[in-house]
Amino acid sequence: xxxxxxxxxxxxxxxxxxxxxxxxxxxxxxxxxxxxxxxxxxxxxxxxxxxxxxxxxxxxxxxxxxxxxxxxxxxxxxxxxxxxxxxxxxxxxxxxxxx
Length: 99
Prior knowledge:
single chain, Contact-dependent growth inhibition system immunity protein, mainly alpha, CdiI_2
């Protein structure tokens, strides 16, 4: 993986490519992503998600970015976009341990 990547672009691609309008549920989409991705890809996903989550952007900017790029209706799942993304990262970290 190239050191000159843009974590913002990578996150947009991950959210839009995984959590799009044709999914059955966010949980199923994440399960499919985890099952199809290799360990290196999962580690890279964790890396750019963590960079985004710890960036200097405001909480509102982060929430808006997640909402704009993931086709998820957050009130229906009972989570804010940031809590949801943190949960996604934790699930991917757990999956890496099993790969």
